[in-house]
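Researcher: Good morning. I'm working through a list of sequences from a screen, and I'd like to move beyond sequence-only analysis. For each chain I'm collecting a predicted structure so we can compare shapes side by side. This is the next one on the list. No need for commentary yet; just the structure.
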Amino acid sequence: MKTLFTLLYITISFNMLISQTAPVIVIHGGAGEGIKKGNFTESEEKAYTEALQKALKIGYEVLENGGNSLEAVEKTIIFLEDCPLFNAGKGSVLNSEGRPELDASIMEGKTLKAGAVAGVTTIKNPISAAKCVMEKSPHVMLIGKGAEKFAKMNNLTMVKPQYFITEKVMNEWKKSHVEKKKSYVEPPSKYGTVGCIALDKYGNLAAGTSTGGMMNKRYGRVGDSPIIGAGTYADNNTCAVSATGHGEYYIRSNAAFRISALMQMKGLTLQDATQQTMDFIGQLGGTGGLIALDKNGNIYMTFNTEGMFRGYINADKKIEVSMYK
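Model: Good morning. Structure tokens for this chain:
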């Protein structure tokens, strides 16, 4: 009997120990030169602020109630995909043909499992499709019609492409439309890619990113958001990262993984590793931002544009959201 009580005591003590990590959640809603004071009305600022706060609270509630970081990331990004203010899900920018093409990825730090979808047009919440790829297939990334077929087979909500198109984005597309015979794409002044990183009570990190890509993108272009190691990365030994910006530069610099590698191989702090990576992207000519969260709950957010929609709830339950520098 004494042995039984001893085992029960050890089990209870261990469960208490592993649940002592204070949950943390961090989000971004895109970075760009257009995110600066004067470009938004007071009501628009309020709308963005309230949306970011609500997204944080959705994810944090999952964490506070004992849910895992992967679930928190997915639910947070679902809200951001459903919110037409951002360039992900409803409200996504349009390609050169005036159609939405969406990308997303998700990764858990405990196992390094990951999933992604790219170039999809009929999956209501691409982040859920990415998670489904991770959990219910032997693959990491599915694209286009194949990804849509897989999502439908797994009973995810499907929509017509028109669902994603808002009047505001359509008007912006008409203004910035690139002539089809041109072979380049002019980058937009504002990015709205969304991302979320989280640390749960059990010490597990997760990261996710979702986007509509670049306005007027051509030829089936895919950026960094669905690419593990470029736009999204999570490793319990180091950190979780989500990126936003001109994706080609994040792919070339392997941005999200670079932060983890600098921490693990060079012993850099989260702040130093993230800032060095952002500086390197800038040296290449890239613009955008990064959010990062380490295994100890430390947060670092950086960008080299006029602004970045961003926010967090830290280990002390402090909530903060920002738009400008």
